[in-house]
Amino acid sequence: MSPQKQGYALVLVTMCIWGGFTLTARLNAQWQISAWDITALRFALAFCILMPILIWKRDTAFLWKKEPFILAMIGGVGYCLTAYSAFHYVPAAHAAIFLNGCIPVCTAIAAWVLFRVPFDRHTWISIVIMLTAIAGMSALMYQETGVAFGLGDGLFFISAIWWGVFTVLLRQWKLSAWHAMAGVAIWSAIVYVPIYVLFFPKQLSTPEPIHLLLQTIFHGVFVVIIATLSYVEAIKRLGAFKTGSIVTLAPFIAAILAVPLLGEPLSLAILCGLVGMGIGALQPWRWWARPDSLKAQLEQQKQQSD
User: How far apart are CA 46 and CA 189, in angstroms?
Assistant: First the structure.
């Protein structure tokens, strides 16, 4: 299999897991699994898998640096608690709009605030499109329900801020995918699980045991470990822009699938938000003007040989 085909296969794996995250996180609300519980179970299982591997490889020195700890508090504990909580208040389509749709803009803003990285032309276009989509969506929602935004929407937007800051710091600190993933999972478990056990409310006896088991395995293994590694390997083969653009489709597809699978509503307001935020996040105009990287390299080599 060629590297390009390997890249697309890895993208498909990542898309399935990321789309599954949206659907299964929404299922937590239907199965009465609280955000406190699934966050603890997710990181506890990941810790039990990753820590023995790090000890066996004698690769634990990086854990004592400040970077993995900070990333864990932002992209691990903070992100999970707000994102999982939001799914208890609003349908999955809202996650595609206010979480995944807002992540590119929040990342650009975080880069400017933290490191004064200026916005490029594509970011400004995305911001205009997204603000227009949100304004149209909120106006339609207000006409339909009398409420423009809900608590879940706010929690999703906070989650997008967490992830934007996490992405910028990860890029700045240049941690490897393995160290970033392992550091976030392990420090999140070390800090959060004891606090959860001692102080947070628990509803582990309410859901069906099989539901708890399935959610723990999916979020602790597939989301934390497999999706991270497959995404990074896809970037190596296809490039960051192409990989990111394709994978970004997953939550939007999941939002559509949630209508028949979970019985979620899909109003005109939600459609407006999905289309606008999808265009703003994907930036399709960059595909039209972007030459194929492999063809460009071959053309450059040909010119040099001539």
Answer: 8
